[in-house]
Amino acid sequence: MVPLIQPLLQGDAEVRRVLGDPIRVYPNTAPQDTALPYATWTTAGGAPIGALSDRPPADGWRVRLTVWGKDTRQANEAAMTVRDAVEEVGSIESYNPPPDDDDTGAFGISFDVRLLHIR
Question: What's the pLDDT tens digit per position in 14-44?
Fold first, then answer.
């Protein structure tokens, strides 16, 4: 069970414009020497939505997205594009402290999103 962040973002024309097609969005970490900007994601939490008499009708996910750019401007443009795509079907839960650049020199913007996947 994986949150459907990848197909959600791939299906957005503006995200494809900014992050390429296929989009440069990767679970956990990006491959070495990935072109900027790109995004990474990880599952920060989740649970089935409870129902008393039937199987749960949906799964709720909290996904941590980090958008990387060569500088603040590029990262911010890409992060706003990803945010706008996510807010079509989910919500922003939190904005997080800037992540470590892992010695790449890239600038990162991190935020958590809440998504609901109907089964």
Answer: 999 999 999 999 999 999 999 999 999 999 9
Long-range CB contacts for residues 80-85, cutoff 8 Å, separation at least 24: 81/12, 81/14, 81/15, 81/17, 81/18, 81/19, 82/9, 82/15, 82/19, 82/39, 83/111, 84/14, 85/8, 85/9, 85/12, 85/14, 85/15
- Evaluate whether 60 touches 30 at the Cβ level (below 8 Å): no
Which helix (H) or strand (E) segment is 71 a member of? Answer: none
- Distance (Å, whole) CA 51 – CA 89: 22
Q: How big is the chain by its Cα radius of gyration, in Å?
A: 15
Give the number of other CB atoms < 10 A from CB of residue 70: 14
Task: Note whether 76 and 107 are within 8 A (CB).
Answer: no
| pTM of structure | 0.89
